[in-house]
Amino acid sequence: MLTIRHARERGHANHGWLDSYHSFSFASYYDPDHMGFRDLRVINDDRIAAGGGFPDHPHRDMEILTYVVEGAIQHRDSMGNGTVIRPGDVQRMTAGTGVTHSEFNPGQEELRLLQIWIRPVRAGLTPGYEQKAFPLAERQGQLRLVASPDGRDGSLLIHQDAYLYTTHLAAGNETTYALASDRHAWLQVIDGSLTVNGTQVSSGDGLAVSEEIHLRLRADSDAHLLLFDLS
């Protein structure tokens, strides 16, 4: 079963320096029919103007992933980390018992990123931080694992039974994914369009997948996407 979450149906907030689209309920956007999918709680597609950003703010009991699409973001947190995250980098922050951090666009161009929250396997985890670069060659034409519960294949380690993949598919190219019979998937299209098991999705769309054991992803135009494999 495939269910589309159309881009136009998402929540939207424009604060001037921040233009954000919410796949699931977030902040002032509340939709009881879209509170997340399985353990996936938040996908925000954020565009942040040059010099804009989030001052220090707290998080707790959440696995937070930052996926930069364009530009760069400067991160500082109460654990002592100070980094810049660029396209191809993925950041994981375990908020656990409590973390404070800030995020700013230090460049002269607009920044685009996806902010992802996944519920942790349990509350009260020790806060943690990890950041890794995944070269385009590893993501081109194939699904590259970037986050997992065991850190396999050089992926980031997240504290939940969830796997995050990304890929760039050129128009006309395709890839496949085998989904265990007791698993579910969420596909988030960042850019472009593709057909998944006969269902077409495009930029900003999400696709909830259940009771499918084989996914065939064929790019109708150059496509950039995320795929979550969830319990």
Name the descriptors:
231 residues, mainly beta, Jelly Rolls, 22 strands
Give the topology, please.
Elements: E1 2-5, E2 11-14, E3 18-22, E4 40-48, E5 53-59, E6 63-70, E7 73-77, E8 82-85, E9 89-94, E10 99-104, E11 111-118, E12 128-133, H1 136-139, E13 144-148, E14 156-157, E15 162-169, E16 174-178, E17 184-191, E18 193-196, E19 199-202, E20 206-209, E21 214-219, E22 223-230
Parallel strand pairs: 13-14
Antiparallel strand pairs: 1-20, 2-3, 3-4, 4-11, 5-10, 6-9, 6-11, 7-8, 7-10, 9-12, 13-15, 15-22, 16-21, 17-20, 17-22, 18-19, 18-21
Instruction: Indicate the CATH class.
Output: Mainly Beta
* Major beta sheet summary: 7 strands, mixed
Number of DSSP-assigned strands: 22
- Mind telling me the CATH superfamily name? Jelly Rolls
- Counting structural domains, the number is 1
Class based on secondary structure composition and strand pairing:
mainly beta
Quickly give the CATH architecture. Answer: Sandwich
Spatial sequence of strands, sheet with the most strands: 1-20-17-22-15-13-14
Order of helices and strands: EEEEEEEEEEEEHEEEEEEEEEE
Q: What number is the mean pLDDT? A: 95
Low-confidence stretches: none
Can you give the helix content as a percent range? under 10%
**CATH fold-type name:** Jelly Rolls
Q: What is the count of helical runs?
A: 1
Distance between the termini: 16 Å
Shape designation: globular
